[in-house]
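Figure-free illustration: sequence to structure, shown twice.
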Amino acid sequence: MKRLFLAVFLTAGMLKADFFNISGGYGVEQQIIGGYVKGSKGKNYFGKKSVDFNNDPYTGYFGLKNKTHPYFWIKLTHKIPFVPNFKFRYVRYESSGHSNYIASNVTVFGKVSINTILTDADTYMSIDAYEGTAFYCINTSIGKSELGLGADYWRGTFRIYDNVNKKYVVNYQGSLILPYLYGSLNTVKLHGFSFVGIAKVAKIGDKHHYDFSGGIKYSINLKNIIEPFVKIGYKYKEAYYKDSNDNTTKLSYKGAFLEIGAKF
């Protein structure tokens, strides 16, 4: 992934002089997992919760661990009227774990059903998230804003291996599209420092997708040719799904991030 980012970024930098303004970043983020899946008679947390399943046989957990993973993004802007600018971002979410109790009668994002109780299981979940955003730039007195529309395409894998019966109870691969309204703000610099905030929000009926991040950015303008920067901040992402049978999935990731990048 790092090599792909560098290749795209360097190619875009060579084109910039004639066509575009280019910026991009590469970083790492904490992915502290949260949320749950809930059915009519069962509930499982994605992480590991303190659950007394002897007294509460309807509640369990997948036991997925918190991780730290890299990401990258690249943004192309221009001065052509009425034509939107574009930003692409990639991040991988991946975690494994173990559970001593997984409750039955739950469905994950309306796609994966768990119909049996498990008392010794290994779990695994990964998501390749590809974000594409079309937006317009707006200059204000406090800084530069961006407004637009986008979608987060998830390509995921979810597995549960039953150690008692030595077989996969769940071995699923599929995709999910999370659309959103996009907005961002990069404030005016003060001694090289600025505040950066990004929001991606969508709500359709009983489904929603929230993605918020904010941080402090330090950048240096080198003779109006390149502007390297470093950014540190915090991010929260949540996807919520509920179907007609009240099967509910709430998946969230939160944590700090550290990023380096440049603008040409």
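We now fold a second protein in the same way, so the two outputs can be compared directly.
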Amino acid sequence: MAEQVISVKKPVVGVDAENLATELSLHCRALVRDKEAVCDVNVYRLMSHGLDRVNRASREARISFKNTTKQTPRAIEERCTVERVLAGEVTVCPDVRSKRWQRRLSLEGKNREYRSFISVPVFNEAHKVIGMLSINSNKKNGLTDLHRSHLEAAAKLYARAAAV
């Protein structure tokens, strides 16, 4: 995958960007060694209104995260996600059902198909945030530092191809 990204003509846009993001998400999912775990990986690009999902293949994924001033629980969660990404923060949540993590990350207290997640910002060469990669697992504490490291490496590859 790294060779493909490095040799691709830049910047990758349109359908080619969608194909690259989809392939990248599939490679990241392959990292999960637990055969009982269900994981999902998504690639987002930063837009003026928030984060839009780029990859096609996804289970019940959010379409986007809006940067809004609305005060509904969902809107607050989406805005806080965008703010963390813009600040360049890596987010690790071992249990989305935990009240502690819901408060800390401003998560909407709803039922989700996943229990844990990691999200990492994607930086361009000028160290400006251009997007986010996220992985989630249906298991509490289902993701490790290895997942985080892999996702951070994948974000660097994606940024190199996006070359925005």
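Summary for the second example: The chain has a mean pLDDT of 80.
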